[in-house]
Amino acid sequence: MTEQEKLDADARRLIKRNNRALLRIISKICLIKTSDENDEYDRQEALRIAKYQITEIEHFLREEDIRNF
Questions:
Q1: Where does 1-69 have alpha helices with state H?
Q2: pLDDT tens digits, residue range 17-67?
Q3: Which string of b and e fits 1-16 if b means at least 16 CB within 10 Å?
Q4: Distance CA 65, CA 61 (A)
Q5: Domain boundaries defined on the chain
Q6: How far apart are alpha carbons 60 and 45 in whole angstroms?
């Protein structure tokens, strides 16, 4: 494995870890808007919204990358 491949693998791991952290943060924000965070349905709905937000962020970042090249 070349040095660049190692750096790429490290970058991918960092991105995945950051995405998980961002998902947790967004899901917590979504839970604030739910009526009962102990309710399983509300937690699942907050998670669904958070995943949607992550997808939107990923699309935005891809568009920014394309514009920068």
A1: 3-32, 40-68
A2: 887 788 778 777 776 666 666 778 877 887 788 788 878 888 877 776 666
A3: eeeeeeeeeeeeeeee
A4: 6
A5: 3-68
A6: 23
